[in-house]
Amino acid sequence: MHRPKRPVTLQEVLSESDPGCDQHLSKVLPGPGVRAVLWSALAFAVMGIFVKAAGRRIPSSEIVLFRSAITLLLSGYALYRGGHSPWGKSTSWLILRGVVGSVSLLCYFYSLSVLPLPIATLVQHSSLLWVPLLSWALLKEKAQLWEWLGVGVGAGGVVIAIASRGMGGGGGMSWSDLGIAGVGAVASALVSIIVRRLREEEEVVVVFQLPLIALPISLPMAIAQWVWPTPKEWLFLVGAGVATQFAQLKMTQALRHEPATRASVVGLSQLVFAMVLAWVFFDETPTFYEWIGAGCIFLGSWIAQVERRVTWCLFNHHETQKKC
């Protein structure tokens, strides 16, 4: 009885063409760090939906307060179960992570309340432009050529999408709102660098520091503008807290495996998730240029992961017998 041939896998093609290329396959296909970034991006996009829904009536500082309280409880329980010290091994860096993260969180939640969800997500992820410089200054990480190319393509996508809203005239955006969102983006870039510096710490210890510090910072602002949530808004607030906890754990896990620059580029996939969710839940139809921008961001994410030598192997495996 004739049996159909089994499909040849990509790994077999590379190995057959050149055994030297096989060892680089893991750099082409998404590894655990990249997968963790994608899960984090999706969870952050879901968080954005909850925050925007609650932010229609509740001040952003109050949302930050509730979000911090929920994640503080979840992180505290995880710390207790794991028997970890909340102060870790690098207390000063952990505190700095909490302070800078609080600034980023307050600015980002404000932008989610006043800007279209795709634009707020875009500006937040313009932190990509700052990560290479901060990585070089603080971690002495030298971004490779393909990573800089990915940064350029991804940043171009951000500019295209923002410009499309400006040209349409219906975005309802102001320079002050965009400026606050920009401050949050710079702070977010610094958080990525600090978390990379804390890769020896337990993930839950790093995550715990943000709500621990953000809660007392946001408390006085929340009291000054207090609005009691409705039952539906309570669900939004709890959902935002749970989604954020999951997203931060995944991003902290990702930064153990990936350089800060590469993780930030791949994390821009959150934009596409946010665009789809905003269209489904808020009828914020993405413009044509926003989809173009999203395509640039995905392309930049791919470029940032693939080394030229591995790409060369993929496209020339039938012709070459040289090692990569």
Provide keyphrases for this structure.
324 residues; mainly alpha; globular
What does this structure look like?
This protein is mostly helical and 324 residues long. The protein has one domain. The protein is 77% helix and 0% strand. It is built from 16 helices and no strands. It starts with 9 loop residues before the first helix and ends in an 8-residue tail after the last helix.
Could you provide a short overview of the structure?
The protein contains 16 helices and no strands.
Cα-to-Cα separation, first versus last residue: 41 Å
Number of domains: 1
Count helical runs.
16
Secondary structure class reads mainly alpha
Low-pLDDT stretches: 6-22, 167-171, 307-324
> Taking Cα atoms only, what radius of gyration do you get, to the nearest Å?
21 Å
Helix-strand pattern: HHHHHHHHHHHHHHHH
The helix content, as a percent range, equals over 70%
Q: Estimate the global geometry from the Cα principal axes.
A: globular
The profile of the biggest β sheet is:
none
How many E-type strands?
Answer: 0
Strand content: under 5%
Q: Give the averaged pLDDT, no decimals.
A: 76
Question: What oligomeric state best describes the polypeptide chains here?
Answer: single chain
